[in-house]
Amino acid sequence: MHEYSLAQSLLESLRAYLREHPVPGRIRKVHVRKGELLVLSEWALSQAWRILAEGTELAGSELAVENVPVRVRCPSCGYAGEARYLAEEGWHMAVPILSCPRCNAPVEVVDGRDLAIVGLTTEEPDSL
Q: Does 120 lie in the same domain as 75?
């Protein structure tokens, strides 16, 4: 299960970070940015997080996932912006087209393929 290994990697990275940079209070939410090119089930990722966080300082926290659209840059004409998408009736998702919306040349992906922790929501220590 791809989501399980991603959740484990996020959890291990965050726990290592928190050992060096402790935060006051209990962590309630872990804010994550997920690029649209990263195909995964947010539900499965959240469930894996819940299971893996049990027994750790992150037990009971939840993932808050923000989807990041694909942004591209064209080396041919200089276009920089969101990719075009192809969507057909009945599809579960739109598929980004990795060619320039302006000149149709191949593009470089600038944003939209990463999975990263970008913030935490904590409870104040005296409200515990």
A: no
State how far the alpha carbon of 127 is from the alpha carbons of 24, 28, 54, 72, in Å: 11, 12, 21, 44
Judge residue 62's burial from the number of C-beta atoms within 10 Å of its C-beta, 0-12 exposed, 13-18 middle, 19 or more buried. middle
Give residue 128's pLDDT: 52
* Residue 97 structure tokens: 């087209």
Tell me the CATH number at 34: 3.30.2320.50
- Whether pTM > 0.90 for this model: the answer is no
Q: Are residues 38 and 52 in the same domain?
A: yes
